[in-house]
Structures are given as structure tokens and as C-alpha cells.
Amino acid sequence: MFLEKEQEFLEELLITPSPTGFESAGQKVWTGYVDEFADEVQSDAYGSASGKLNTSFDVATVMLEAHCDEIGMIVQHITEDGYIYVNKLGGSDSTIARAKRVNIHTSNGIVSGVTGNTAIHLQDKKNGGGEQPKWKDIYVDIGAANKEEALELVQIGDPITYADDFDYLSDEILSGRALDNRIGGFMIAQVLKNLNERRDELNVNVVALNSVQEEVGGYGARMMSYRIDPDMALVTDVTHATDTPGIDHKEHGLVKLGNGPAMQHGGANHPKIVEFVEQVGKDQEMSLQHEATSVRTGTDTDSIFYQKTGIPSTLISLPLRYMHSPVETASMKDVQALIELMTESVLAMAPDQTFHVLK
Ligand SMILES: [Zn+2]
Description:
Layout: H1 4-15, H2 24-34, E1 40-43, E2 49-53, E3 61-67, E4 72-78, E5 84-89, E6 101-106, E7 109-115, E8 139-141, H3 147-153, E9 159-162, E10 166-168, E11 173-176, H4 179-197, E12 205-211, H5 219-228, E13 232-240, H6 249-252, E14 262-265, H7 271-283, E15 289-292, H8 301-304, E16 313-320, E17 328-331, H9 332-347
This protein binds zinc ion.
Zinc ion (ZN) binds next to α4 and β13.
């Protein structure tokens, strides 16, 4: 499906921790790869990074965007007996936070720990034992005897990620930590690579942007969109595949793993650019899925579309099961299709491409 080198890049990206606000390790992997074919690689003070293909000064510029950060935890308090209490970074789920192996990322490297889980035999059922914990109840045990010993290894404010990496459940299905949205960084890099190989068909300038700090508010995308000032944007992030047991489709819609990229409609999504990408999908005889956005897309699209005088944007989502858990699961068939859809959409753009709802 992918060349060996591309596969290696994906896997290296997936195993490199990049918790929100501490993304530099992952960004170095991403820029190292993109640097091999981009005309220009840039990064800003907070660590968002972009790779550009320059066609000409007087043609439109399209931005491809994904976020590079992953959710995690952060060291908040260390008790006298050496236990580390944490808070969440981004939308981490406290209900799955117990009994996990974690890595604490310190200035001296990784410190291993486990999140404590009181044994089922000892749980005080009358006083909340066995119930869903809150973040204030989650603690990490790093094997330190006391606070002093813990502080020799770990500081308040060190970020934490789960130790899980990834597995292929089948030839097609990939499962792991932080596919949200490392897989997006992989996809926009592949689109840029494809476009570089097909430069003779390319009519516009292209910038692929891998943004920091999406999980806490879409901040990196905002900063870099202002700097790059593109004429339009194709954004990719994960969306909920709702084809697993117990999800109400009347409430959440139906998106299936392996049925193709999901086009988002409404909110920040510009109707004309949505239509344009859908037409490209039809021309390529691709299977697309559809989702309605009521208020916010919950992605960087919300940060990009209203920058400066407005940047027509569309979110093209990758279906993902078990979002914000260490077993996020996606289909490589969808990954491949999304790369193709983005690549062909950019190639279909005219040198003076604009999107205007009233024209
Ligand atoms: Zn995301």
C-alpha cells in the first residue's frame, strides 16, 4: 500500500510522543521527512511546522492542515509518600486512566510509571470504590519511596503519555495511541510528496501545516494560518467511526470504518469548497461519507476559517474508533483514500482558484 520508507515514517511518527504543548520530538520527525521534497520548511516559535511547494508568486495558495499534538497528562502534585497526582492535557478520559503503563517525559529522559488501581478485593464500594474516577483521583506510581526520591526523577509540569504504541489488527486495520492526529500529519506529508512528484499537473502553491496545541483550543493552527495567509484550506483530522456497539446513530450519525473519508457539512466548512472536493471524489469514483456539523467541528478548521478576511476551508475527516484512548483504531484503506482525495483536489485547482458563496 505504502512504500517501505513511507511506512517507516508513519511508524516513527506514531511512536514519537508529542503531548500538547510539548510536541518538538514529533515535529522533528515530521520536518525531517518533509524536508526531503519540500522547497521550503518553516516553523514558528511554538513549534508548528510547514512544508511548501512553490509554483509561482501569482497563483493561489492552498494550505493542507493537520495537528501534531496528542492528548496526555501532566504532573500536578507529588505526595509525601512519593505518589504523583496528575491533571489531563486536552480531552483525556479519566474513566480509562487507571492500571496503565505511562511514560513521564522529563528533562533527563523518560521515567516509567503505572497509574494506580486499587485491587477489586480492596475497593470500598460504599465510598465510591469501583466507580468512574475523576482526574483528581488518578495517580502515578514510579516506585519512589517518598517525595524527595520522586523529585529527583520528576518535576511538577512534566508531561505524561501512555506507554502504548501500535499494532496492526489486520493488513488493513491499525490500532494505537495518538492516531489522533499523528495519522493526519502522515497524510498531509504524503499529499505533499505526491504533489511534488506530479508538479507538472500542479497549478497552485501548496503549504502543508502540522500544527501544535489543537487539543487545547486550536492555537497552533491560528498562529500559522495568520502567518501563511492561504487562499483556502483542506483540513484533516479524525472523526468518530460510530460503527461499534452501543452508539446511537440518531444522536451521533453513522460513519463506518473502511467506508472512506468523511466530508463535513456546516459550520466552518465552506459550502463551495466542500462541493468542489465532493466532485473530485465523484470523478475519482471514490466512496465518501458525510457528517453534519452543528456548531463547531472540534478541529483546527474552527481556528482557520475566520483568520484575516476568511479562509474558505473544508474538513475531510478520517474515521476512527475509540478516540482519545490508547487503542484508537483506523483503516489504512481510508488513510489511502483520504490522501488520494486531497491530492486530486489540489491538482484540480486552477491558478486563480477562489471560492465564493455568492458567485
Ligand atoms: Zn484531533
